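Researcher: Good morning. I'm working through a list of sequences from a screen, and I'd like to move beyond sequence-only analysis. For each chain I'm collecting a predicted structure so we can compare shapes side by side. This is the next one on the list. No need for commentary yet; just the structure.
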Amino acid sequence: MNWTFCSGHRLRGIFLNNMDMIIGIAKESVRLFNEMSPYLLFGFLFSGILHAVVDPRQIAVHLGKNDISSVLKASLLGVPLPLCSCGVIPAAMMLKKEGAAKAAVLSFLVSTPTNGVDAIMVTYSLLGPFFTVYRVIASFFAGIFTGCLSLIADRDQSGDKNDPKGDNCVHCSGKMDHKHTAIDKFRSAMEYGFVELVGDVGRWLIAGVIVGGAISYFLPDNYFSGGFLSGWKGMILALLISAPMYVCASGSTPIAAALMYKGLDPGAAFVFLLAGPATNAVTMTVIMRSMGKRTLAIYLSGIAFVSMLLGAILNVVWKYYDKGNGGIAAGHEHGSVGMLGMVCSIVLTGLIVRSFFLPKKRHEGASRV
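Model: Good morning. Structure tokens for this chain:
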């Protein structure tokens, strides 16, 4: 009888402790989500508008030459596009089919998934303006570096121009030889931004927010400061962990922010934000099958080198920036989110939940860039 009482008391204590843990993680996750949601909604809106005005055939025309100009244009094009690590694959294959040079395709594959309007807005909300600007510039440079590496390593990179007449319209399933009204384009922009794109990144955003909340709950402040993961060790570990993972640019940001709040070097967090979205098992398999093992080696070497280099530069620069601005959390203190963040979180949660019950058609549209 006493044994039964003790066992029941112990189980009750475990249950209460687990509930406290779940509630604590939930509170931290909600706080992160409230900070991100206004910027995310704006990012989805802008992404939809961008999608409605981009013509993939016109893009491919500018990326067909086997020179630095095509690499620059591809990297510049990829930075604002709201395509995740998987969504960028059909888009890149479409560009290759339309005649884009191999170097331009690789540049596009690096710069596109590592950023996007939604990821830029989330980075600004959680890590501030300096880190945001650095991330955008670094993604652009990473795309250029990888494309130039391909130019140097492989001179025969001309694309195979195919007949684009069978391509579908961005706004409907019809052929390209017709026009749409402003209302049709607006409807297409809203559907892409708040339905298709939310469906693409929604589950990864939720996963990233929960992981970020768990990190904030379990780890004490400055946990990583001066520890084993400082400097090159942290960046190497971040590269090895992030390379095979599927993690989108937006969903990885709250994880990186939570780690930086706990004292992780910004360079290691940056490597995670660059190498994670740019590489994953699916992307590597597609590149190897469609462009060959040599191109895959160029792609991975470029990302590894440039992410480590830019991470090391960020560590040096950050010491001076962070010292003069009161630390990373300045302007982003806990509990600073107002009613706007809560309302936007409710709206965004509704959109994400709704996407779970809609038929999947996104990756067909992803090829339309």
